[in-house]
Amino acid sequence: MDFLKKHYEKILLGVVLVGLAVAFVYMPVKIGAEKQQLADLEGNLLRPKTKTLTNLDLSFADATLKRMATPMTVDLGLPNHLVSPKAWQQTRDGGVTPLDKTGPTAVLVTNITPLYLSITLDEVRPADPADAGSTTRYAISVEKQAAPKREQQKKRPYFCKAGEKNDNFQLKEVQGAPDNPTNIVLVLSDGESINISKDKPFKRVDGYMASMYYEPQKKKWTDQRIGQALNINGEEYKIVAISKDEVVLSAPNQRKWSIKSTAPPS
Q1: Is residue 193 part of a domain?
Q2: What is this structure's pTM?
Q3: What whole-number distance in Å separates Cα of residue 260 and Cα of residue 266?
Q4: Dihedral class, residue 23 (left if φ above 0, else alpha if ψ from -120 to 50, else beta)
């Protein structure tokens, strides 16, 4: 114990010197190993070991090319509605119906009836021989089925003589014997000149009325005329035009829909 106390510095120095000697001997070995490892890495990068290629399996690529030879048609519109999904609306009974099957576009025009302007020569009243101032008068009736008011649609007689004018026509000329004319020429209020006689009345189409059906509400409208309104799903749509094959509806925002005539619903 006394020996260690007296010589511990020498012993410690000897241990350090032995460690340095071992490190000095081991260092070349370590450096050589590191150099070999770096050389191996360089060789693997510059001259990598490769496996011999085998025959490639091209069956998947061949099958893909065969499928591509026949182009595939993809319908993204109707009736799939992939790009533009179909909107649906709830009905009053709790069900649902496509939105394009409701509203004005779902109204069916089941019938269109022509409305006529009819003018007839009903009677000839000869002049009274006892009255020197009397002249032959003609009973001419006018029926305007397309008039906007009901009282205007009724057949209305006019008693007039040659040259007289009223709110519907002017009796321009009487051809043949005054008490038995072969033809009477009238000029209508719109400027058209027409011919009538007892066996040849005048008749032309002056407008139309339509009957319609709305499936979502099971509604029917019969003999509707221009200006009348239809209540569709709580909204008012006015009839603004009727032709021989279509009806035009207008919403309060002035948007319009043209509906072609169809056969009555089954």
Answers
A1: yes
A2: 0.60
A3: 17
A4: alpha
